[in-house]
Amino acid sequence: MLTVWAGAFGTAQAAGTAGQVEKPVISENVMQNSRVMGQVSELKPAWAFSVDRNEQWHAITTAQAVGNQVFALKDKKLVAIDEATGKKQWTYGQNLTSTIKVHQGVVYGVSQSGQIYAVNASQGKAKWTAKYTEVVNVIPQGDRVYVLHHERKIDALSASTGKLLWSTEEPEANYALNVMEADGVLLATFSVQGALSTVQLDAFDLKTGKKKWGQSRQDMPILVKNGMAFSKTDELNMDDAVADRELTILGLDLQTGKARETRTYSYKLAGQPPYSPGSGRILLDGNNLYMAQGQRIAQYDFSSEAGASKPVKTWAVMYPDVNFLGAMHQGKFLFQDRNTQEIKGIKMSDSQEMAWTGDNPAAQVEIYGSVMYRAQTDGILYGLDVDTTKALFKVRTNAHFYGPTLKSGQMIIIQAEDRLIGVRLPASVK
Q1: Which of 171, 317, 357, 407 lies 20 to 30 Å from 271 when distance is taken between CA atoms?
Q2: What is the pLDDT of residues 323-368, one digit of tens each?
């Protein structure tokens, strides 16, 4: 309930005098998105481990949990931690950055000088290093490690030896965004700056790095099938006064880049302009394509081009100012409120709205299985039941900022500012 005082008949209120109750100029309850959590069982941490803060974000850690190990930075060195006990297993290197990637039993990262390293995950022994100066990202895939540079360049290294296999670049781009191996080609997206910023999709021969083709305004594919990469066309900046919209997905030939299929989804936004952003976000689940279309989610049959003609089913989105996250879980579409940043949902079965709120603002949220892990700015992490939104447990973190909560089996690892906190979950929590 909102209560506002502004003096009698809107006139200015004089300062209080003796014997009178002083009235505020305004009085407003701003906790409209919070709820009383009630009595919630508290889980005690199994261990805590001090680590470095992320040098880019200053307030959170950067760790990875794989199998029974957690990898993080301590004093700018890579450290391996037993996920059950929190005990240090080994350390490696010096002056390392927060980039940590784990792939097929090997940990990859970058030093502050730009050098790339590969370390055996179980023993902490160096496999190889490669000298670089500026690195945007390191992406291990298959038997390769791809190095993305600031200046639109991509190097392919052997994952076993670190040897340079080939190097390529996109002259029209500013920098590389992401890569994906598919049927003998490397698909890569690049940021391109012009009158309007957009993305470009290129294909390179996986063995030689030779460029096969490039397509402007095409995103990383949502599906690779039958020798085609199905890629959404960048809509650029849509006019917020235009209700009639189109979204196009091209089936690009992997070898030539030519469009073998064109799927155009036409729809009209409800309501009056200006229209809120967020339309056009998609999710492919098997042969079902889900698309945000303003105040509704539409489902299309993606098994053929003909399925683009009309939706199979639609769901009304009554929430104001939400963005579809391009995700669904346990029969629920997931959204984020543009104002509060809270996660909300709509049940696919009956369109019932859901909200997983707490008693203080959330700083970080993850969903694993049937539980949402909601780390709050007041130093409490709640485990909320995804189906009922009921609070299952809480953990005291004494943190204001967080990195993503990690999970390995029945252990969660909370990245709380400059500490990792290991918590064993009850057997009932899945």
Answers
A1: 357
A2: 999 999 999 999 999 988 999 999 999 999 999 999 999 999 999 9
